[in-house]
Design a protein that fits this description.
Blueprint: H1 2-35, E1 37-43, E2 49-54, E3 59-63, E4 69-75, E5 80-87, E6 90-97, E7 113-117, E8 121-129, E9 134-136, E10 140-149, E11 154-161, E12 165-169, E13 174-181, E14 184-189, E15 194-200, E16 203-208, E17 213-218, E18 224-228, E19 234-237, E20 244-250, E21 255-257, E22 260-261, E23 266-270, E24 276-282, E25 287-290
Parallel strand pairs: 2-6, 2-8, 3-7, 3-9, 8-10, 9-11, 10-11, 10-12, 11-13, 12-14, 13-15, 14-16, 15-17, 16-18, 17-19, 18-24, 19-25, 20-24, 21-25
Antiparallel strand pairs: 1-4, 4-7, 5-6, 20-23, 21-22
């Protein structure tokens, strides 16, 4: 038994040394990959479509109209596979981790994916990431936009859609300066905050479960907005909109119109002709409306 115990100790010491050396080498490879970038160029014209997907990589999309092609940049370590293709007018960019035996023992830092477009005008924009943040650093004009994440944040400057616009996360925050669309606007998060300075569209839906919804809403004629949360707060400014018909309801939260506390768990009001519909609902969260 004594010999077996010594042998086990020696084995464990050797194993720890091997793992430590492997970890040092791996971190060295990872650092080199972060510091070095691999760039690809692909033809991209105004009116083309862009589809981007990653698992854990942050996604950053910029616009440089002095460029003649789209530029795609990713860290140069060997743990990630970058695929870039174009079929017709659709450019597809994807990053996926390469399964290696050492990834079972060590995690790695995913490189940010940086895409620079030569035009701010797109037919369709679709961006998805599981745990990476999504940042749209330049105003973008599309026919349709769909951005979705799980735990990463979605940040943007200005998004304009000729048709529909959808922003969704599970636990990541959604924040930006301005969104507008001629069709439906659908913005939702389960536990992330929805905070947008200005939202403009004929039909807007803002939803969370446990986080706050905040923003200024502009409704065109015969437009509608619905804001719904379970335990989060709703803070909306509709002072730029007219002819409102507002219905607000809560189970155990409070309702305020222009800082005036309403009695009961339901409240309504109408301005002008009341052709623009506003529906606000919560279970236990506060509702605060300015009009």
């Amino acid at each position: 038994m004594l010999k077996d115990t010594k042998a086990n100790k020696i084995f464990l010491i050797i194993l720890v040394v091997i793992l430590a050396l492997s970890f040092s080498l791996y971190k060295g490879w990872e650092k080199q990959g972060i510091e070095q970038r691999r760039d690809q160029q692909i033809d991209f014209q105004g009116g083309n479509s862009l589809q981007v997907s990653t698992i854990s990589n942050d996604i950053i999309i910029e616009v440089d109209e002095s460029q003649k092609q789209a530029s795609i940049s990713l860290g140069k370590h060997d743990n990630e596979e970058l695929k870039v293709s174009k079929r017709g007018s659709l450019v597809t960019v994807s990053v996926s981790p390469i399964k290696r035996w050492f990834l079972r023992f060590f995690s790695y830092t995913a490189s940010p994916l940086v895409i620079i477009l030569p035009s701010e005008s797109l037919e369709r924009l679709e961006v998805t990431s599981t745990s990476g943040d999504i940042t749209l650093m330049h105003p973008l004009k599309t026919n349709t936009t769909k951005v979705s994440g799980v735990s990463g944040e979605v940040d943007f400057l200005t998004l304009v859609a000729a048709e529909h616009l959808q922003l969704r996360t599970v636990s990541g925050d959604i924040s930006g300066k301005e969104v507008s669309a001629n069709g439906e606007i659908d913005i939702s998060s389960t536990s992330g905050t929805v905070e947008i300075q200005q939202v403009s569209g004929p039909k807007t839906a803002l939803k969370t479960v446990s986080s706050k919804i905040e923003g200024e809403i502009h409704l065109p004629e015969r437009g509608s907005v619905e804001a719904k949360t379970t335990s989060g707060a709703i803070e909306l400014n509709l002072r730029s909109s007219e002819n409102l018909k507002v219905n607000a309801s809560t189970v155990s939260g409070s309702i305020e119109f222009n800082d005036d506390r309403q009695t009961g768990n339901r409240a309504s009001l109408q301005t002008g002709e009341g052709i623009n519909l506003v529906k606000l609902s919560s279970v236990s969260g506060e509702i605060d409306l300015l009009y």
